[in-house]
Amino acid sequence: SDRFGSDTIYAPATAPGRAGVAIIRFSGPRTRFGFETIAGPLPEAGKAALRLLKGADGAVLDQALCLYFEGPKSFTGEDVGEFHIHGSPAVLKSCLDRFAALPGFRLAEPGEFARRAFENGQMDLASVEGLADLIEAETEAQRRQAVRPQANRQFRFRRTPGWKCPVPKRATRPSCSTGAITKSWSDSASRRRRPI
Q1: C-alpha–C-alpha distance, residues 42 and 19, integer Å
Q2: DSSP 3-state assignment of 185?
Q3: DSSP class per residue in 135-176
Q4: pLDDT per residue over 25-51, tens digit each?
């Protein structure tokens, strides 16, 4: 099976360094298992719950704001979880190590969350490119330019059942294969040193 669909991926969704909050995002078929193993019972989808995150020995790793999004009503179209933890390097490392020890989990490759969103019909090519440009924007002019395509296409999470977005036919042509697409946004994500 396709490794991008069979594995559950995880990664920091925030920039490296010390901060008040850091976010760990995870997505894939074992999201529910990972959430319940580390943070206990799932909260209602889309609603935050304050939980204690625990290690394999039961020791508390941190107190976190935890969210669960049931696929396909999520960014990637898969089940997705987020742990909003305290942003110290030690806390982040302990939580990432906890995920690394779970069966079926692996660290996401650069751009892999966006790739899954694309492959699952949650985003089209223009939306993916706009997202990368928006994250890279450093000036007001760059921000406006990055937002414009999304506004014109009314890009947003789908509020209808399935939240699907048609994938352009051109994406199926060899010149626009998912491998080439992934390279374009993984290069951008690598510059940020975190997946998107």
Answers
A1: 26
A2: helix
A3: HH--SHHHHHHHHHHHHHTT-----STT---PPPGGGGSGGG
A4: 999 999 999 999 999 999 999 999 999
CB atoms within 10 A of CB 167: 17
Question: Both tokens of residue 79?
Answer: 């089940």
pLDDT, tens digit, for every residue of 176-191?
Answer: 344 444 444 444 444 4
Provide long-range contacts, Cβ within 8 A and 24+ apart, for 192-195. Answer: 192/15, 192/135, 192/136, 193/15, 193/16, 194/11, 194/12, 194/13, 194/14, 194/15, 194/16, 194/110, 195/9, 195/11, 195/13, 195/108, 195/109, 195/110, 195/111, 195/112, 195/113, 195/114
- Range of weakest confidence among 5-9, 28-32, 67-71, 152-156: 152-156
Question: The sheet that has 49-54: what strands, in order across it?
Answer: 49-54, 60-69, 80-87, 19-27, 8-12, 105-107
Cα–Cα distance measured from residue 117 to residue 178, given in angstroms and rounded to the nearest whole number: 12
